[in-house]
Structure formats: C-alpha cells, structure tokens
Amino acid sequence: MEDKTMGRFPKGTLDRIKTVLRDGESQADFVREAVELELRRREGPPVGGPGPA
C-alpha cells in the first residue's frame, strides 16, 4: 500500500510557497514539481565536483 502521509515543513515554509505559486497552481502542484526535479537531480549523472585526476 502506498504511504499517503505528507512530510512536515519548518514553520513559515507553506506561507513562502503560497507567495510564489503561479496562477492556477496549488501547493500540491508545487510540491510535486519540486520533488520530481530533486529526484531527477539525484538520479541523474553527477554534476560538477572534481574531475578525473
């Protein structure tokens, strides 16, 4: 079964999200997009850092 609980955010985070929402965008839309972008970043090839020695 899929876990449908939501993580807790530090105080003030949801207010900050509300101030940057686009027209018609919900907080849930924002969080889904942010999570997807972070997953792609972490699952993708390493970016930056030291190159081969």
Q: Which features would summarize this protein structure in a list?
A:
2 helices, 53 residues, 47% helix, elongated, mainly alpha
Protein model, in words:
- The protein is mainly α.
- It is built from two helices and no strands.
- The radius of gyration is 16 Å and the shape is elongated.
- About 0% of the residues are buried.
- The model has no long low-confidence stretch (mean pLDDT about 85).
Condensed summary:
By secondary structure, the chain is an all-alpha fold. The chain has 2 helices and no strands. 47% of the residues lie in helices and 0% in strands.
Q: What is the topology?
A:
Layout: H1 13-20, H2 27-43
Question: Which word captures the global form?
Answer: elongated
Major sheet summary line: none
Report mean pLDDT, rounded to a whole number: 87
Q: What is the H/E order? A: HH
The chain-level structural class is: mainly alpha
DSSP, total strands: 0
Oligomer status: single chain
- For the terminal residues, how far apart are their CA atoms? 46 Å
Count of runs of 4 or more consecutive helical residues:
2
The stretches of 5 or more residues where confidence is low (pLDDT under 50) are none
Helix content: 40-55%
Give the percentage of residues in beta strands.
Answer: under 5%
Radius of gyration over C-alpha positions, nearest whole angstrom: 16 Å
